[in-house]
Amino acid sequence: MSVLGIDQITYGAEDLATCRTFFQDWGLALKSEAVDELVFECLNGCRVVVAALGKPGLPVAMEEGPTLLEVVWGVQNDADLDRYAAAIAKDPGFTDGNVEGARRIGCIDPNGLAVRLQVSRKRAVEVDCGAMNTWNAKQRINQPAPIYERATPIEVGHVVFFVSDVKGTSAFYSDRFGFVGSDSYPNRGAFMRCAPDGGHHDLFLLQLPSGKRGLNHVAFTVRDIHEVFGGGLHFSRKGWDTQLGPGRHPISSAYFWYFKNPAGGLIEYYADEDQLTAEWQPREFEPGPTVFAEWAIDGGLDGNTRRQKNVQGPEGKFLTEKR
């Protein structure tokens, strides 16, 4: 028994019209639209709901303004739901009912976030990915690596929150749902995955000296490093602002590109994270710029010149061309 991953997230936002354009430019499919709610899907059926702040029935937010209100995690079957329901039955805000004809259980985590579980609605997908040629392994023969004109995210891969008590909140996810620690910043941050075998992290909890609670970012998995670049360049051409990227995380090995999100916090394209098993030994790190990013471009790349923003691109057809 283990949680499989994120099935759905719900934002509370102020400007649904802007969010509609934003998430479609991001590469999500708009599945339904109402005056007070938008529902998007990733390639594998993972849902992103954007609801108007103040809509009746929404969970209480951890912070003021646009933010993430709810994370729904997927499980394998009804028997898993029964076991998890017993584990959280005495936690604040416990709920056990039907949503859109399916059972969903949940509670409020120690940080004030609405946490839900349901039998996963995600579907298996097969996608073409760029193969990497290394000195030892030539996986791409007589075939160029892909170039993507835009990204089409496969799923919501992980969520990151500022928490007031990283030890207490990480213990909650470990004790109630079986999450496993991958790596950590001692007393400051906890990278956690849903199960012993899986990607480096599905959840990252970060404690600031101020004790601030809220959303840091939501990360969307794409096929490969080339889609990180292609998606980020497309998003830049659409006029959305980069916070940081592209770049590469040394802790998870993932390539990233972060943008500012009108629905709250930041949003990330990422690919090529480490895959771990039960044999993995968690590491401890001291926070620092080079620990967060092996390399990164501040302010992003311009989608038209394909160069760092505010840097003039080459005028000739070839970099070596003389004027």
UniProtKB/TrEMBL annotation:
Taxonomic superkingdom: Bacteria
Renumbered residue ranges of the record's region Disordered: 300-323
Pfam families listed in its UniProt record: Glyoxalase (PF00903)
CDD domains referenced in this protein's UniProt entry, alphabetically: ED_TypeI_classII_C
Domain VOC: start-end pairs: 155-272
Designated name of the protein: VOC family protein
Species: Variovorax ureilyticus
Lineage, top ranks: Bacteria, Pseudomonadati, Pseudomonadota, Betaproteobacteria, Burkholderiales
